[in-house]
Every structure is written in structure tokens, then in C-alpha cells.
Design goal:
This protein is α/β, with parallel strands linked by helices and 550 residues long. It folds into 3 domains: 190 residues, 3-Layer(aba) Sandwich (Rossmann fold), CATH 3.40.50; 171 residues, Rossmann fold; 101 residues, ANL, C-terminal domain (GMP Synthetase, Chain A, domain 3, 2-Layer Sandwich). The strands form 8 sheets. The chain has a 5-stranded mixed sheet, sandwiched between helices. The protein has a 4-stranded mixed sheet with strand order 2-1-11-10, with helices on both faces. Helix 2 packs across helix 3 and helix 8 crosses helix 9. The mean pLDDT is 92.
Length: 550
């Protein structure tokens, strides 16, 4: 493939879309492309005056907001390396990641800053408040004066005013390090994933030519996923900036209610989200309607009318203008998928990982197959490490332009991530059918060996459990040779329905025979334990499984 400079794509987009709206905080400020460009240029002056060199690291730790986008783009278009850090990490983790990445600048949310200390991050030149772009800390007074004198410096640099022709962004090379994305994943400690520019370009090209060709400078997008995570960063923000689209950051906890309100108002052209969001909407809104109409659904003509009505209402609730809903980041509940396919709802499931920036497989909603997560994307190859890849699950391995460079300052982890012949080991298990569609079977590290050597993938068991009323989420673990289900119940909904905590737990325990009827004999769950609060989760909202193993 012929690579182009990502920063030059951004430069072109900013010049062509100068007066268009670029970044908005939902129910807050809106920045046009010219406003974003001006702030980027001011930050470039700050970077230069602070002595920041090309390739130096710039950490960002904040909730989603317009200035997060400004600061990320400012670092990358300067030739520095942005290091997004999830704002939900604890202060000790943030200190560690800033230090491990060798960041020279930290942009931070004021709320997060309250728990941090500059003395714990001695390598930083400056710490900048994200929402105001004012310095919270500078190593010496000279650096502080740079920020104070910025209006005069900017005016002198552009005496005739700042316009589109004044933009000239750093020209990147395909193999050059673009960003470092830290993710704890579900299997252990955080590793710094080194993403090259070729991987960013491969995903941008995929979105523009294959996945979202209908998107253009008139398109609207709601960013509900964490921008610090590769999935949201790429498909709710970075790709959009290269085509002149308008991104609305939710800036708040993305509950189903907040999401649906935003979608109804913004009416986005594409919806990027994780299965958990759709599953919650299904359980709270769709499932009760289906259960109330069970009798009618058994009648062929009536059920088509009901399905059509449900589909129409759901599409309207999602804004009514979107091409499709793209799901990724975790396994999709089979029951929810079956219902959405019955009503012909336009959704598709993709598969990827941070190390591939992020996409590996994808297929348009009207071409994909039930249960699959699409076909391998262009400029990428996958193989299944199995004697029979069509029927026997094996590890999914990847090669292509989208694959990362390695883990930052961790040669051992990098070495373990690749096979001897250079394929990326995903750690995920799957099969591929005769048409090239990939079907996930779980993570190899999560697999439990059954009593007679059977492979038990806990995700498949959890999908059954999660369909039970009042179950928010579950995790199946092995304990002394038996399978135990850890369940986080919906205590709030239970109380609204007149069920106290003990009554709700008794009801869920009584559902165990019903659950086991749907499971193979070798995968029977022997015990249920209840979680007093939600599981600890990764940026993708996956459960941190390693915390709950025994």
C-alpha cells in the first residue's frame, strides 16, 4: 500500500474546513477548525519555547473534551509523541505511566490534578490544565514566562493574523512512532503499545474507503468511548478530523440515558460503541416489550409488524440518521444479537486490539454473518494456530500494516507478543469459515480446561448468565475444580421492583438450574457468589479478569 503522512492529511483537512465546526463539548463550547488550528499553533509555540524536541513524549490525562482533541493533535502535528492515559486510573498509576513514558509535558484535567503531585513526576518540564491550557506547574520561571507572554509572541509571529496558509504540520514517516497507548488489558500490568504512523494510516484508510465511505465534512459523530483508548480515539475522533467532520464529546459518564439523549439531539452519521451499551439498552427497553408481546410474536404476520415497529423506534432513538452501529471491544451477547438480527437493525461487530490501532476484522452490517466479527481488513492478514482452523479454535495471529512496533521499554513483552516467524499473537481464540468470516471463541488466557480435557470459554457461559433478569454482569472462574459464577446484580432495579437484597440474591440463586440447562454437562456452574459492587474494568469496559482468579 502507498502510505501518506497522517499529519499532512490533518493539515489538508484543517485548511479545507477552516470555517466548519470541529470539536464540541456536549451542551458546551464548540470549536471550529480554525479555532482548533489556532490553539494548536499556540501550543506549538509553547512546545518550542519549552525546548520540546521531535519525538519527545506528551502525556494527556483527562475526561473526554474538546481540548483533549486540541492537545492530542498539537503534540502529534508538532512531531512529539502523544501518550493518552485513561483518566480513571488511580493517581499512583498515572504517576507511574507519566514516568515510564518519559513524558516532558502533562496535560491534565483539574479534577485529576487534585490527586497528583509534581514531585512524583520529576521528568516533566510543565504541567498544563487541560480545560484552560494554563500552567499548573513549570520547572522554572523562564518556562512560566513563556505561557504568560504567549499572546505577544503569537501576535509577533503572525502580524497579519493567523490563517489557513500559516498551517504547516510535521511530515511523519510510516515506520515512525506516532503515539504510545497504555492499556492494562484483562491479563496483567499496563504496557505501552507503540503505534507507528503506518498503523494509524491503515485504519484511517479503512474507515474512509471501506467502513465509512459515506462520511464527509457534513458528518456528525458522538464520541462516547474513552478517547484515551485506541478504539474511540481512532473512529470517534482521529479519522473524523482528517475528513472535516464534527465530533461531539459527551464529557460525562456515558450512561444509556445520556447516550440516547445525545444521539437523539446530534443525529450522528455513524455510531461507534461497545456491546455493553447496546446490551443495557436491550435489557432495559427492548426485552420487556418482547416479553409483553410473547403471544403475538408466535403469530407470523403479527410478529413482523411488532419487529418492524420496534426497529423503527430503536432507529429513531439512535438519532435516525446513522448508517450503522459498529460494535467492538468485547464479545457480543448472542441473545441480543439474535433479536437485533430478527428486527433487521443495522449493526455490525468488528474485532481488534490496541496493538493493531485497533481494527483487525470488520464487515458491513448487511454483508456480515450472525455470530461473526467480520472478515480481515485490507492490508492485513490473519491465521488460526490450529490443525483445522474451520472447526478447531486456535489462537488468532495477525500480520500487516496495522500491527504495532512493540511495547515501550519492555523488550521481553515485545518478544513474547510475536511468533518466531513474525506474526502478532493476539491471545484470542477463534475459527474462520470457508468464506473468511472470523468467529471468536474467547481469550486463550481465560480458557478453563474441563474435567475430561474440554476447552471451556467462560465468555460463552457468561453470555447465558447475563440474559437472566437483574444480572448486570457476571464472571465465571474455576475454584477447586468447579465452576463458580460471580454475579453483580442490579440491586437498584430490584429495590424499585420491591425486592430487597437477600430476596434478589435468592431469586438469582434459584435461576441456576435454568442457566445450567443451557450449558454442556462439562461446563455446569456449581455455585453463585454475589459482588457487592461492579467489577473493576479496563478502558474497553472489559472486566479485569486477573483480579478475580483463585
Amino acid at each position: 500500500m502507498q502510505f501518506q503522512s497522517v499529519n499532512k492529511l490533518l493539515e489538508k483537512s484543517f485548511k479545507e474546513n477552516w470555517e466548519r465546526e470541529a470539536l464540541s463539548n456536549y451542551h458546551g463550547v464548540t470549536l471550529c477548525y480554525k479555532d482548533v488550528a489556532r490553539r494548536i499553533q499556540q501550543l506549538h509555540i509553547n512546545f518550542r519555547e519549552c525546548g520540546l524536541q521531535k519525538g519527545d513524549k506528551v502525556a494527556l490525562c483527562s475526561r473526554n473534551q474538546a481540548n483533549w482533541g486540541v492537545c492530542f493533535l498539537a503534540a502529534m502535528t508538532y512531531g512529539a509523541v502523544p501518550v493518552p492515559i485513561l483518566h480513571e486510573f488511580k493517581p499512583g498509576n498515572i504517576h507511574y505511566l507519566v514516568n515510564h513514558s518519559e513524558a516532558k509535558v502533562l496535560f491534565v484535567d483539574d479534577v485529576i490534578w487534585e490527586g497528583l503531585s509534581e514531585s512524583e513526576m520529576p521528568g516533566l518540564y510543565v504541567i498544563v490544565q487541560m480545560n484552560t491550557l494554563k500552567y499548573l506547574y513549570s520547572r522554572d520561571e523562564d518556562l512560566a514566562s513563556v505561557r504568560n507572554n504567549l499572546p505577544d509572541t503569537f501576535a509577533k509571529a503572525f502580524p497579519a493574523g493567523f490563517g489557513p496558509d500559516d498551517i504547516e504540520y510535521y511530515e511523519d514517516q510510516p515506520e515512525e512512532l506516532a503515539l504510545i497507548n497504555y492499556t492494562s488489558g484483562t491479563s496483567g500490568f499496563s504496557k505501552g503499545v507503540m503505534i507507528p504512523y503506518r498503523a494509524l494510516y491503515a485504519n484511517i484508510l479503512l474507515a474512509g474507503e471501506y467502513a465509512e465511505p459515506q462520511m464527509n465534512a457534513d458528518s456528525e459523530v458522538v464520541a462516547m468511548l474513552p478517547s484515551a483508548h485506541m478504539y474511540g480515539m481512532m473512529f470517534e475522533f482521529l479519522f473524523e478530523m482528517t475528513i472535516g467532520a464534527h465530533v461531539h464529546f459527551l464529557t460525562r459518564v456515558p450512561s444509556p440515558k445520556v447516550i440516547l439523549n445525545a444521539l437523539a439531539e446530534v443525529k450522528p452519521d455513524i455510531i461507534i460503541t461497545v456491546p455493553l451499551v447496546i446490551e443495557k439498552i436491550y435489557k432495559n427497553s427492548l426485552k420487556p416489550v418482547l416479553e409483553r408481546n410473547k403471544t403475538f410474536l408466535s403469530l407470523p404476520i403479527a410478529n413482523q409488524m411488532i419487529y418492524k415497529k420496534i426497529r423503527s423506534k430503536l432507529i429513531e432513538a439512535f438519532g435516525g440518521r446513522f448508517e450503522e452501529v459498529i460494535l467492538g471491544g468485547a464479545a457480543f451477547n448472542p441473545e441480543v444479537e439474535r433479536v437485533l438480527r430478527k428486527i433487521h437493525f443495522p449493526f455490525t461487530v468488528g474485532y481488534g486490539m490496541t496493538e493493531c490501532a485497533p481494527l483487525i476484522t470488520y464487515c458491513k452490517w448487511y454483508k456480515t454473518k450472525a455470530g461473526s466479527c467480520g472478515k480481515v481488513i485490507p492490508n492485513c492478514s490473519i491465521r488460526i494456530d490450529s490443525d483445522d482452523p474451520k472447526t478447531i479454535p486456535g489462537e488468532i495471529q495477525v500480520k500487516g500494516a496495522n500491527v504495532f512496533l512493540g511495547y515501550y521499554r519492555n523488550e521481553e513483552a515485545t518478544r513474547q507478543a510475536f511468533t518466531e516467524d513474525g506474526w502478532l499473537r493476539t491471545g484470542d481464540m477463534g475459527v474462520i469459515d470457508e468464506d473468511g468470516f472470523l468467529y471468536l471463541r474467547g481469550r486463550s488466557k481465560c480458557m478453563i480446561l474441563g474435567p475430561s480435557g474440554q476447552n471451556i470459554y467462560p465468555e460463552e457461559l457468561e453470555a447465558v448468565i447475563n440474559n437472566i433478569s437483574y444480572v448486570v454482569d457476571s464472571l465465571v472462574i474455576e475454584d477447586g475444580g468447579t465452576l463458580v459464577a460471580l454475579i453483580y446484580p442490579d440491586y437498584h432495579q430490584g429495590s424499585l421492583d420491591g425486592l430487597g437484597r437477600s430476596a434478589l440474591e435468592s431469586r438469582l440463586t434459584a435461576a441456576l438450574p435454568e442457566i445450567n440447562k443451557q450449558l454442556p454437562n462439562y461446563a455446569q456452574i456449581r455455585k453463585i457468589e454475589f459482588m457487592p459492587e461492579d467489577f473493576e474494568r479496563t478502558p474497553k469496559r472489559s472486566i479485569k479478569r486477573y483480579l478475580y482468579q483463585r
